[in-house]
Amino acid sequence: MATRLIDKIFKSRPTIEGAGVHLKRAFGYSQVPLFDPFLMLDDFHTANPAEYLAGFPWHPHRGIETITYVLEGLVEHGDSMGNKGVIGSGDVQWMTAGSGIIHQEMPQKSPTGIMWGFQFWANLPAAQKMMAPRYRDVKAADIPEVVLDSGVKIKVVSGRINGTQGPVQDIVIDPEMLDVSVPPGTVYRHQVKTGHTAIAYLLAGEGYFDERRDPFAIEMAGAGWMDVARRCICGPETVVLYEREGEEVCITAGEKGVRFLFISGKPLGEPVAWYGPIVMNSQEELRIAFEEYEKGTFIKKK
Question: Is 105 annotated as a binding residue?
Answer without folding.
Answer: yes
